[in-house]
Amino acid sequence: MTDQLLSLDALHRRRGARMVSFAGYAMPIQYADGIIAEHQWTRTHAGLFDVSHMGQLTLPLAADAALERLLPGEITGLAEGALRYSLLLNDNGGILDDLMVTRRADDLYLVVNGATKVADLAHLRAAGLAPVYRDDLALLALQGPAAVTALDGLVPGVAALRFMRAGGFDWDGVALWVSRSGYTGEDGFEVSLPAAAAEAFAEALLAQSEVRPVGLGARDSLRLEAGLPLYGHDLTPDTTPVEAGLSFAISKRRKTEGGFPGAALILAQLAEGASRRRVGLAIDGRQPVREGAAVIVDDEVAGLVTSGGFGPALGSPIAMAYVPAAAAADGTRLQVEVRGRRLDATVVPMPFFPKSYVREGAKP
Amino acid sequence: MTLYFTKDHEWVSVDGTSGTVGITDYAQGQLGDVVFVEVPAAGTTVTKGTAAAVVESVKAASDVYSPVSGAVTGANAALEAEPALVNTDPEGRGWFFTLTLSAPDELDGLMDEAAYKTFVASL
To answer: Do A309 and B59 touch (CB under 8 A)?
Structure first.
């Protein structure tokens, strides 16, 4: 199958990107600076990510109650301009996808994963919903401590948004939908805009000295350090929100009312605890452990690494793994098997690297 | 001292039956930032074309194949503290291991520097 081209394809190539196939698209894995430099740039300045492979969908406002029956989040009571992180669930409480839902004045705006968007559309339609797939839109993320000044310089007013809030803005006659959100643990924004205007807007951002393009490679290492799970790896149809450590995504009202797929099982896990849990691992030494590595507890295979690599800002290897509840407490010592050798590791709290979100109530 | 190259982008520098093995500048460019290198212990026997070392970049682990067969005599201890030497000086201070060649005629099947440059240009 031939990869689809992003609307910023020419820009990526012009900027020296190495392109790889991902979720059906030709995507930049890194630019000339390399993953570590791009990672560190995002932690200290501002990185521009093209995430247009992700699915942008809209639903009528009246579909809020029907959408709620597919996920454990509060949607009917979601305030206008507010984002909610949620999870599409199967009847066993397994995670079909993780997504962002925003209530806007005229519709519900959903951002879903690129690799799952076709299945998500089918899932929504099978539930009687009529999603509109907005493949006429591009999606850019600007992340890092300098993101707010860089974006507010071009689009005055975005600095007033707080974490998980969004609004409509105008840039040079182009309608932007801007959310203060992201997937790096840094303060930053995600900007949805017409694909035809994306290149000019991206170039205007990149014209600022504090903004550099950042590829998928650093996006993965940044989200790993931030303790954020990656769908298809750390979250699958066989993991529940409680096992995944995402109980915060089950809204208060839904905890009492239920009414979402797998509610009986998930609410029982909430009350009694799940038998296994997603945890963070700090690996002794310098050798990275990767997805698929076995976790050894008391000399027996007890779990599995679902994401792992080197944390560039930490300077050490880190991983996410599913382990039995008895081995999930912070400070638990265990081992991870890599190529026949066992490396010592410790269960540590996530995020590995502290988050820098600008939350409601923060000073302007 | 003669330098030979493989199509898998390893090099071996040979002096008599002593060889030093590493990966090429092209290979390190493809791998990206190297964060860990696993080298074979002295005394290990390696076979031409089979995995002898592992190089880990931020994003993935990749096998390094031995260009020739032989007995490992030493490994580059500097890579433990500074794996990025593979990126900054791949054909110098970023070498992986030394060995005693057990079948020097295997070198006949490898490329010299000019042939390797032509090969890389064709990729």
So the answer is: yes
Give tens-digit pLDDT for A311-358: 999 999 999 999 999 999 999 999 999 999 999 999 999 999 999 999
Interface of A with B in 271-310 (CB under 8 A): 286-288, 290, 309-310
The CATH number of the domain holding residue A291 is 2.40.30.110
- Tell me whether residue A311 is in a domain: yes
Residue with tokens 């020097």: B104
Task: Count CB neighbours of A220 within 10 A.
Answer: 20
Decide if B10 is inside a domain: yes
Q: Is A30–B83 a contact, with Cβ atoms under 8 angstroms apart?
A: no
Short-list B24, B63, B25, CA closest to B46: B63
Q: What residue of A is the nearest CA neighbor of B58? A: A310
The pLDDT value given to residue A157: 98
Give residue for tokens 């679902």: A306
Q: Which residue of A has its CA nearest to B37?
A: A287
User: Could you give the number of structural domains in chain B?
Assistant: 1
In chain B, the residue whose alpha carbon lies closest to the alpha carbon of A290 is B60
* B66 bridge partner residues: none
- Span A97-152, pLDDT tens digits: 999 999 999 999 999 999 999 999 999 999 999 999 999 999 999 999 999 999 99
Domain extent at residue B68: 2-112
Residue B33 at interface with chain A, using a CB cutoff of 8 Å: yes
Judge whether A287 and A355 are in contact, CB under 8 Å: no
